[in-house]
Structure formats: structure tokens, C-alpha cells
Write a structure and sequence with these properties.
By secondary structure, the chain is of the alpha+beta class. The chain has 18 helices and 25 strands. Helix 4 (129-138) crosses helix 5, helix 5 (150-165) packs across helix 6 and helix 9 packs antiparallel against helix 16 (441-448). It is elongated and about 70 Å long. The protein binds iron/sulfur cluster (SF4).
Length: 507
């Protein structure tokens, strides 16, 4: 057993890397589109757990209902029955630009000078937000009460331009000027639109219902609403769907740079991205991890759930038996009840509990998806030793995370990333493992079956495919800083999730 008295003390447990949002849209006359969207968002809940919202359009009016909380906390039967129409946009949010406030929940809503409504959901993060704010100010677009997101700027610019030329033309002119990662789903009274950035950083897919169309962040959401997969929304493509059918327009030349972290952790295992199953990728990473970093051990256990497929692959390739050594409390991830100090001290036990009978007396290989700050793994190793493990060999299904993400994933600042300050042995000693092995970059690419040239791997190699502005012009709370003193406003009113400032209709 290796211990290191000089290792840093256990700190607070790391939040897992957070997704930036899930988006869903449906155009389907005769269907209960709000309920379809609800189930679509349910399937995408892992992509954002801070807030959820659904807009519906009935040909005459756009109505938005949104609130803080999980999809199941925000919506009930009564609310869904009140949201009637044939076009819907859904969104579940984790805040990567702007605070996690009600005002920043989506779909965000604007009206045009001609009185048309626009509801918009955004997955991703722009990197030219400061420039868009400047453009909004020059165009005289009022900053919406309390909203501090790049998504609201997009919505405002679109609504402003659409008064003269309509949303489709306005989008074709605006989208090429956005820089960064964006999967957008938006709707006016009659038409559903979907657009994906020219790099296709995050996934967005098109599906077919018997009586309509669906767009969603992941193929798993299509499965859950009974839609068949048609194809991915292409990088640089705008789709418009209305009673005239489906129209596709190209607003930029595609330069694919898909996020490799979707395969590692972010996407559901039952999702397919660029033709490759996420589950199969994770199993293959585990298999290759076993040959890159073998271990003398009695049992392979995953850190559930995202480490499970790679642990299965590791066990298959190594011949070491696979077992369930940790039980995850699946419902503790998001609660509005602040834990008491006593509960907080339980740290990792809130999320994971060891199966002592399985672990006791064993040399373990523990497979996790990634290491961010290292606090989780440090607490985990300690917990497994306390549960009776003889040795703990940590294997990681991704390379070391050394760089922050500016395209929509919230890891930590660069200074907080453990791999930014320590070499491999330093990390191993810091987390208290007997051995540590990360999968190589080459292996990760091979397992994804995507050409390296079509992937973003910036959090591993620091090569950002979309140019970044200077430090002062980027960051989660950028707009809160830039807007200080600009967006003076009355306190927005919220009644059961409906925003009075949006002049929305209550059921
Ligand atoms: S930096 Fe990492 S997490 Fe962010 S888009 Fe690129 S691969 Fe994905």
C-alpha cells in the first residue's frame, strides 16, 4: 500500500464536469408537443440540472414556461396540459454563461417589432459574447431584465433583425457571425428552427415522427419519444420546419471539431455520435486502457455510472473479474436542500457507498472517466481502503485534463486542475493510489473511430480549434461584469414559473 503523508489533505468533493445544456424541439400537428418535449428533456436531464423550460406555439402565440430545478420538478400534468400547440422548444440548463438564475433559464424569449414571438434554447458557449453585447447596444437592443447569457443576446439580435426580414433570413445573416459552440433550437408561432455551429462541437440530431419532426441534443432523446433517427444536423446548417416541409440552408462551410469529451463522459451511453456508439467507445477505451496500463489485481470495479463501460472493457481485456464495488445514490446529484455541516462532511459518501463484502481483502482496479481536481479520487481511494481494499489501482478512461473548456463544459479553472500542477507520480501520490494509469490521447481517438482532425481535444492538449479572445473577454460571468450599470431594471416577477416580463400567458 502506498501512502504519502505529504499529500494534500482531502478537500471538498469535486463537482463532476458539467454539461452545458440539452435542447429539444418538435414540430408535429396533432401531437401533444409539450408532453413529447417533457419526455425528450427527461432523456437529456444529465446535460443540465439547474433549470428547465418548454415553449409552445399554436400558430398564433408563443408561450414559455420555465423554472429552476429538474424537469420533473418544474413541470406537472396541469402545466403540460396548458401548453397547447404544434411547435415546441425544450431546454434543460447547466449554467456555463451567466449565473444559475431564473432569468437565465431557457427557452429565452423575445418579441419582434412586428409583434412576433421567439423562444430559443442554446447548448454550447460562444466566445465572442462581448462583441455581441457591443453589437446589441449599437442596435439599441434592450438588455432583458436580469438575463446575462450569450443565448439571450442571440435571441435579442435575431428578434431585432427578424422584424424586417423574417427569422429564417435573420438567422442566415446572424449565425455566421457567432463564434464558439452552439446548437440552437428556436421557434416562432409557426416554424421550428435548428442550427449547429460550423465546428459541430456538440451533437444535434434530426428525427422523424409519424406526424412530424424532432430535433434533439442526443439520439437517446429520439428513442425515448419514439422518433426515428434521420441524420445529424450538419455543422454550419440551419433547418426550418413548418407546414411547407423541411428546408435546409448552409450558413457556413463545415469544419468539424466534435467534442471528444461527449464520448468520455457527457453523452448518454445509449447515444450515437457521428455514427459511433458512445457505449461501444467507452468499452473500447477500457479494453485499450488494460493493455496500456495493466495491473496485478483481483477485481475491476467502476466508479458508477460513467466509469462502468470502460471498467467492463478493462475486465474483458485483462481477464480480471468485473464487480460492482460501489453503489451510487442516483438522486443526490441535485437538491435545493443545502446539506448540514454533518451531512457535508460525509463528502463522497453522499454519492457513493462501498460494498464492503465485495471489496474487503481485494486488490482493486478502479476505473473512472476522468480526473479534474483530484478531490473525488482522493476521497474514493481512502474510502475503499477503509472498506478493506488491500491495493487500489486507479485507471482513467481519458488523458489528463490540463486545460479548461470554453465551448460549454464547466470543469474548473486551469489552476484548479490537478494535472496542470503535478506530474503522473505526483497525482498518484496526491490521490493515494498504489498505481495510476491514464489512457493515451491516441487510444482515445482510436476508440472514438473519428479522424483526429475532426475532433476537439483542447481540454487535453490545449489546442483550441475556435480562436479565443483575451482573458478579459471570456468567462462564465462575463456579461454580469460587462453589464454592470447598463441593465438597470426592476426585479422580474415570477409566478409559478411564468415570467411577467415576457408578458406570457398563464393557463
Ligand atoms: S475543450 Fe474538451 S470538453 Fe471542451 S469542447 Fe473541446 S473536447 Fe469538449
Amino acid at each position: 500500500m502506498v501512502t504519502d503523508q505529504s499529500a494534500p489533505q482531502a478537500g471538498p468533493i469535486d463537482p463532476e464536469p458539467r454539461e452545458e445544456c440539452g435542447v429539444f424541439g418538435v414540430w408535429a400537428p396533432g401531437e401533444e408537443v409539450a408532453k413529447l418535449t417533457y419526455y425528450g428533456l427527461y432523456a437529456l436531464q444529465h446535460r443540465g440540472q439547474e433549470a428547465a423550460g418548454i415553449s409552445v406555439s399554436d400558430g398564433k402565440q408563443v408561450v414559455v414556461f420555465k423554472d429552476l430545478g429538474l424537469v420533473s420538478q418544474v413541470f406537472d400534468e396541469q402545466v403540460l396540459l396548458s401548453l397547447r400547440g404544434h411547435v415546441a422548444v425544450g431546454h434543460c440548463r447547466y449554467s456555463t454563461t451567466g449565473s444559475g438564475t431564473w432569468e437565465n433559464a431557457q427557452p429565452t424569449f423575445r418579441t419582434t417589432a412586428a409583434g412576433s414571438g421567439l423562444a430559443l434554447g442554446h447548448n454550447g458557449n460562444l466566445v465572442n459574447t462581448a462583441e455581441l453585447l457591443e453589437r446589441s447596444r449599437e442596435a439599441g437592443i434592450t438588455i432583458k431584465n436580469g438575463a446575462t447569457t450569450d443565448s439571450d443576446l442571440i435571441c435579442g439580435l435575431l428578434a431585432s433583425a427578424a422584424a424586417d426580414k423574417g427569422f429564417e433570413q435573420a438567422a442566415m445573416e446572424l449565425l455566421p457571425t457567432l463564434s464558439g459552440a452552439f446548437c440552437l433550437v428556436f421557434a416562432d408561432e409557426t416554424t421550428l428552427y435548428a442550427a449547429r455551429d460550423p465546428h459541430g462541437v456538440h451533437p444535434l440530431v434530426l428525427g422523424r415522427l409519424e406526424r412530424g419532426w424532432v430535433v434533439a441534443s442526443e439520439t437517446a432523446a429520439l428513442d425515448i419519444v419514439g422518433a426515428s433517427f434521420v441524420r445529424e444536423v450538419e455543422p454550419g446548417e440551419l433547418l426550418a420546419i413548418d407546414e411547407g416541409g423541411l428546408r435546409s440552408s448552409r450558413f457556413a462551410v463545415p469544419e468539424p471539431k466534435g467534442c471528444i469529451f461527449e464520448y468520455v463522459y457527457l453523452a448518454r451511453p445509449d447515444t450515437t455520435i457521428s455514427g459511433r456508439s458512445v457505449h461501444a467507445t467507452r468499452v473500447e477505451i477500457g479494453r485499450r486502457l488494460a493493455s496500456e496500463h495493466p495491473a496485478e489485481a483481483d477485481l475491476v470495479i467502476p466508479v458508477p455510472e460513467s466509469g462502468t463501460p470502460a471498467a467492463i472493457g478493462y475486465a474483458q481485456a485483462s481477464g480480471i473479474p468485473y464487480g460492482q464495488g460501489l453503489v451510487k445514490n442516483a438522486y443526490v446529484g441535485r437538491t435545493f436542500i443545502q446539506p448540514s455541516q454533518t451531512i457535508r462532511q460525509l463528502g463522497i459518501r453522499l454519492k457513493l457507498n462501498p460494498l464492503r463484502d465485495v471489496i474487503r481483502g481485494k486488490r482493486l482496479v478502479v476505473v473512472d472517466d476522468s480526473i479534474v481536481r483530484g478531490n473525488t479520487q482522493r476521497a474514493l481511494v481512502r474510502m475503499l481502503r477503509e472498506a478493506g481494499a488491500l491495493e487500489v489501482h486507479v485507471r482513467i478512461a481519458s488523458p489528463p485534463v490540463r486545460w479548461p473548456c470554453f465551448y460549454g463544459i464547466d470543469f474548473a479553472s486551469r489552476a484548479e486542475l490537478i494535472a496542470n500542477g503535478l506530474d503522473f507520480d505526483g497525482i498518484r501520490r496526491s490521490i493515494g493510489a498504489d498505481s495510476l494509469g491514464y489512457v493515451s490521447t491516441e487510444t482515445l481517438v482510436a476508440a472514438s473511430e473519428q479522424p483526429r482532425s475532426r475532433l476537439c481535444m483542447a481540454c487535453f492538449d490545449g489546442r483550441y480549434p475556435i480562436p479565443l479572445p483575451g482573458d478579459a473577454m471570456i468567462g462564465k460571468h462575463l456579461l454580469e461584469g460587462l453589464e454592470k450599470g447598463v441593465a438597470g431594471s426592476a426585479t422580474p416577477v415570477m409566478v409559478n414559473g411564468y415570467g411577467a416580463e415576457d408578458a406570457l400567458q398563464r393557463p
